[in-house]
C-alpha cells in the first residue's frame, strides 16, 4: 500500500510533467492568482497596467505612462510580468516540451514575411495595435476578462464580448481567405 502523501506527490509529478497542463490546473491557478491579487492589493490583475509600469521605469515620457497609475507606488505590478515569463519557462521545462518562440505552425509561417526583419516589424506593429486597443478599452484581456467579468463590471463584460467577437471574426476571415486561396501558400 502506497502512503497517501507519496500517491499525491506522484499524481502532481505526473500532472506538471505532462506535455500540456490540463485546463483546470492552468485556469484554477489563474483564478487563484486573480483572487489573491485583488484581495491583497485591492487592484485587479492585468498585463497592460504592468507593461505601463515597465514603460514608465524605462523612462518613457508618453503621457499614458505618467501619473499615479504608473508611479513608483504601483511598481509591484512589474512582478506580474516577471511571473508571466518565469511561469512559461517553468511550464516548458517541467513538461519536457520546448517550442521555438518564433514557430507558431504552418498557418503562421504562410502568413508572415519570410525575412526576420519583416517578422519583427509585423510583431512590433501587432504589439502597438494590442497596446492601443488595451488603452482604448481601459485594460487588457486579462484585466477585463479574468477580473472584470468575474466582478460583474459592465464595461468589462462589453469589452470581453468585443474581444471574443474580434477573435472569432478574425479566425473566420482568415479561414475564408485561406479557403479561397487569397492568402497562404
From TrEMBL:
InterPro entries: Sulf_transp_TsuA/YedE (IPR007272)
Membrane topology: Multi-pass membrane protein
Keywords of this entry: Cell inner membrane, Cell membrane, Membrane, Transmembrane, Transmembrane helix, Transport
Residues that span the membrane, as ranges: 12-36, 78-99, 120-137, 157-178
Subcellular location: Cell inner membrane
Pfam families: Sulf_transp (PF04143)
GO CC aspect terms: plasma membrane
Family label: Belongs to the TsuA/YedE (TC 9.B.102) family.
The name this protein goes by in its record: Uncharacterized protein
Source species of the chain: Halothiobacillus diazotrophicus
